[in-house]
Amino acid sequence: MRSILTAVVLICSASLLGQWTGEMQFHIGGQEHDEIRIRVDARQRLVMDHFSAGIRSRQDIMPLSALEPEAIAWDQERGTIIIRCKEGKRQCIQREVFRKSTLWRSSHTSIPAPASDPQGARTIATLRSLVCSAHDPLVDAPPATP
After folding, report:
1. Element housing 137 (H / E)
2. Which of 64, 69, 96, 102 could form an S-S bond across to 134 if both were Cys, CB 3.0 to 4.6 Å?
3. Structure letter (DSSP) for residue 127
4. Interval 18-53: pLDDT, tens
5. For the chain, what percentages of helix, strand and coil (3-state, to nearest 5) are there?
6. Angle made by CA atoms 31, 35, 41, in degrees to the nearest 5
7. pLDDT for 82-132, tens place per residue?
8. How far is CA 21 from CA 17, 76, 87, 89, in A?
9. What confidence score (pLDDT) does residue 23 get?
10. SS3 letters for 66-96?
């Protein structure tokens, strides 16, 4: 594996299905087993599982409704994708580090961009569409009754 990052992206279209049902996997560094898996759970929360040597080391959980699409952006200084909470939804991200048995809240988190997407443009667009789908009232509306 190359030294920085390779990515496998498995995506189902949010606009066609009404909600995102895929998973994004980022293989990190020289280890095939170091990766980040991103998914949406049944409670419409974005869940990012961080693995090191095949063992889950960290988990970030954030409600899609507490995120602002425009606040998902490339941070040139850090070389990462930054995900921030909406104004008024401070500390919306729950982060758990398993090896230290610590749990805390944060107003932002970051992930590295895949090597195939060096500035994170496609990854950012996908994450933004997930957040937008959670904000779309037609997606969340119950079926109409006759």
Report:
1. helix 137-140
2. 64
3. H
4. 444 556 665 554 445 578 888 888 888 999 998 888
5. 20, 45, 40
6. 165
7. 999 999 888 999 999 998 989 999 999 998 877 677 888 988 998 898 888
8. 8, 30, 27, 25
9. 65
10. HEEEEEEEEECCCCEEEEEECCCCCCCEEEE
